[in-house]
Amino acid sequence: MTAEKDLVYGWITRADKILFIRRDPAVFLGGRWELPGGTVEPGEPAEAAAVREIAEETGLKVQIVSERATSSWPDINGKPLTINATIFDVTEDGQAQVVLNPGEHDEYAWLTPAEAAERELPEHVRRILP
């Protein structure tokens, strides 16, 4: 039986730009740009996990608006693991400063979809760029 890992992400926009954060070079998939988010803990609702992970990674307090996209794929290292990702549209007050979690992410950027497409992105994010 293949284990499953659930991930959640937030699609946060300000002035038609989306917030992306870059993984620290020392961590798994270092240097890759991604949406803020992370792993759903056992028994945790996906929406609550997204709010928690976004706060941990960016310092932003968000509210879930709707589900934007879902996708699944096998573990990239060949483990018997299926990764399930949900991306939520979220809102935030638009005034708070982004504060990254040191050691996890080293940079952030507000990017248009075209600008984001030029960065190294996970495939499940690249597929949903408008």
From TrEMBL:
Residues 3-130 form the Nudix hydrolase domain. This is NUDIX hydrolase. PANTHER family: ADP-RIBOSE PYROPHOSPHATASE, DIHYDRONEOPTERIN TRIPHOSPHATE DIPHOSPHATASE. SUPFAM superfamilies: Nudix (SSF55811). Keywords: Hydrolase. Pfam families: NUDIX. Coiled coil: none annotated. The keyword Magnesium does not apply. InterPro entries: Nudix_hydrolase, NUDIX_hydrolase-like_dom_sf, NUDIX_hydrolase_CS, NUDIX_hydrolase_dom. GO terms for molecular function: hydrolase activity. Belongs to the Nudix hydrolase family. It comes from Kibdelosporangium philippinense.
